[in-house]
Amino acid sequence: MENSKALRSWLDDLKLDHPLVIAGPCSAETEEQVLKIAHELKNSDVNYYRAGIWKPRTRPGNFEGVGALGLKWLQRVKEETGMKTATEVANAAHVKLALEHDIDLLWIGARSTVSPFIVQEIADALEGTDKIVLVKNPVNPDLSLWLGGIERLYTKNIKKLGVIHRGFSTYEKTKYRNIPEWQLAIELQNKFPDLPLICDPSHITGRRDMIFDVSQTALDLNFDGLMIETHIDPDNAWSDAAQQVTPDKLKQIMKDLIIRKETDEEAEYNTRLGNLRAQIDIIDNNLIETLSKRMKVSGDIGVLKKQKNVAVLQSKRWNEILGKMILEGEEKGLSEEFVLRIFKAIHQESINHQEKIING
Fold it and tell me: Tell me, which GO biological process terms does this entry list (predicted)?
């Protein structure tokens, strides 16, 4: 994308003294619900009021949105509160209806981003628009696919672009609904530093009690804004109840977040240092998660050894692992001494796990 700095102009034009905030219910349920939430968010940091109109679910049978009727409710939100509006579009028909109802910001969802056919259809329908268009990361951690979506829109002369990081699906059970895989967002940021980057902590966490921490991490990594699902009665929401917060809670989150500004050399130093430390924190958390998985596998091996009455320490296997890791460590710029210390500690912890099982 040539002249990528121009991509940032729409965000700079807002002249915000806080991160961009997109908030509102996961789904527009009733006109009363949509308007009540909007009025409670009117005097807050919210810049765009979001509501899901079409809600394709993973499996059929659940609430899948009110459809085009909800766009009229968003028009009333703009008329009564002055807030700009936002919704997800998944095909050319959605685009046509959203533009007819003067929706200010459109985003392409994670399930749509995975299909270049869908993204191209949406890009063709939006050609030349002056609306803001954001692209959520694909469900799977594929940076090329994510950037490809942006490029398809850019080639259609759509210049008000940005991306939304909402985490990635996994078959493994973790504390997140969708694993952040922050390194992909960081890599995207490094490739295109002027492409506005928004974090969606609601979909990353799937839990309202984790939204603040993920939002803070995003700001520490220099994200430009947040998309947070907000509902007047979250527990009884018609979709994604567990991850929505009340308007009052959203206001408190925005008040408590530490926002780092680059105003002079010292502030720039602190911002860059905070960014790098946030990256270290993410990697450290991944290390702990990986080590935990390794010890679980070691425990499974211990069960097998107990069944066959096999000794815990298998010297040949251990020497093979050590030799292989030393070579791989050297290729990655790690000293032999460092690799030895790390893997001896890991090996000892594995032995401890297996001995507990065998002697249990």
Answer: chorismate metabolic process
